[in-house]
């Protein structure tokens, strides 16, 4: 490294909150820049492929924190082509070299556990059954060519079975054969757990519907079961109370946010990972003044924010105490060496949206250039 560059790095470290170390529970992170979970649809037949080892290791730094792409917890969980699962022996074994590649470079790697709920269709379901949900109302996704059939609402006595699927998937994720460092439960973006949380979708009249407390019951049962199985210190939860992706909205998102933050705090989990309220759609920022500060204050563990962050905003939110860590999605996808680029304030590659949900093992995946 040239003297000039070295000087810039040292100066950067002194002034950049994003590049300061952080102790997240038992994990010593060397910086605050997290790889957000990003579905890559390149896990053929729902089995993670060896090319994912290169993808994740490209984005690994020593002491850096990575969250893996959403991984299905059971044979009813899938809703997209070529997304990985973590419920069969073959799927579990397939993750092993990928996790090893991240660990070899000193990264900390969590597996995101996912159930799509009604964001699925007959083709992904065993026996061509309807997908399961909190409701029988079909998802109406504007602008999408995919058609979503009316789901089948889970009966009250089926719910413990789905809780158990999350628990088993968590056990699979951290068992010695794979060794993820922990799991993130996907409670965001309009998928199954979010379908229970939000009253636009949850129209149940059993103990899992109606009141705020009831709507949060099933997601919290999942968190509790997973924490009991693998330890609360290895569990994070992702939430998007303010978003309405996949037509999943709540009439009082602030109350939902605070109740979940307090409940997760009581369960003593490692982190709470929240999508910024300004992300009304998955990829576009809008102007709204809703703040995550009340939610951050209601949660005692590590607080991670995501959604539309760039270098400056990331530094500001960490520097001002608004968050401990910042998860970067599209910028990290397009810039495998994002922490280095932030450190040097270097030029950033542009993300190629046309390759987001495509299945090539290289294009738009492992071919983004390093500095
Ligand atoms: C291609 C793509 C796939 C995504 N897959 C997931 C996913 O598997 N799980 C999840 O929670 N969020 C997923 N997201 C959302 C991102 O984690 C992140 O919240 C979003 O991109 C906004 O952050 P950004 O502005 O830094 O990109 C995905 C986003 C993109 C672009």
TrEMBL record:
Residues 18-344 form the NADH:flavin oxidoreductase/NADH oxidase N-terminal domain. Keywords: Flavoprotein, FMN, NADP, Oxidoreductase. It comes from the Eukaryota. This is 12-oxophytodienoate reductase 11 isoform X1. GO terms for molecular function: 12-oxophytodienoate reductase activity; FMN binding. InterPro entries: Aldolase_TIM, OxRdtase_FMN_N, Oye-like. Residues 131-147 have a biased composition (Polar residues). Residues 125-156 are annotated as: Disordered. The gene is LOC101510057. Its cofactor is FMN. Belongs to the NADH:flavin oxidoreductase/NADH oxidase family.
């Amino acid at each position: 490294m040239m003297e000039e560059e070295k000087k810039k790095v040292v100066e950067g470290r002194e002034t950049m909150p994003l590049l300061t170390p952080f102790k997240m529970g038992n994990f010593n992170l060397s910086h605050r820049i997290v790889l957000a979970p990003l579905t890559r649809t390149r896990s053929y037949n729902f089995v993670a492929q060896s090319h994912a080892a290169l993808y994740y290791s490209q984005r690994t730094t020593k002491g850096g924190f990575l969250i893996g792409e959403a991984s299905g917890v059971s044979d009813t969980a899938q809703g997209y082509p070529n997304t990985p699962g973590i419920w069969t022996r073959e799927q579990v074994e397939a993750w092993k070299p990928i996790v090893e590649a991240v660990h070899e470079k000193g990264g900390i790697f969590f597996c995101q556990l996912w159930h799509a709920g009604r964001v699925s269709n007959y083709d992904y379901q065993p026996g061509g059954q309807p997908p399961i949900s909190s409701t029988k109302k079909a998802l109406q996704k504007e602008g999408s060519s995919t058609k979503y059939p009316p789901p089948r609402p889970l009966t009250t006595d089926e719910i413990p079975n789905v809780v158990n699927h999350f628990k088993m998937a968590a056990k699979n994720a951290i068992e010695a054969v794979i060794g993820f460092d922990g799991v993130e439960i996907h409670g965001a973006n309009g998928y199954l757990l979010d379908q229970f949380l939000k009253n636009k979708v949850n129209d149940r009249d059993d103990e899992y519907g109606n009141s705020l407390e009831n709507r949060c019951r099933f997601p919290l049962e999942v968190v509790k079961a997973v924490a009991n199985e693998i330890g609360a210190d290895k569990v994070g939860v992702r939430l998007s109370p303010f978003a309405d992706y996949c037509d999943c909205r709540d009439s009082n998102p602030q109350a939902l946010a605070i109740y979940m933050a307090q409940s997760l705090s009581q369960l003593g989990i490692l982190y709470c990972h929240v999508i910024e309220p300004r992300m009304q759609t998955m990829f576009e920022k809008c102007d709204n003044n809703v703040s995550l500060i009340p939610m951050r204050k209601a949660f005692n563990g590590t607080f991670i924010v995501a959604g539309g962050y760039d270098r400056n905003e990331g530094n500001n939110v960490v520097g001002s105490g608004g968050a401990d860590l910042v998860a970067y999605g599209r910028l990290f996808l397009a810039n495998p060496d994002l922490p280095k680029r932030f450190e040097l304030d270097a030029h950033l590659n542009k993300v190629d949206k046309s390759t987001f949900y495509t299945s090539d093992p290289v294009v738009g995946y492992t071919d983004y250039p390093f500095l």
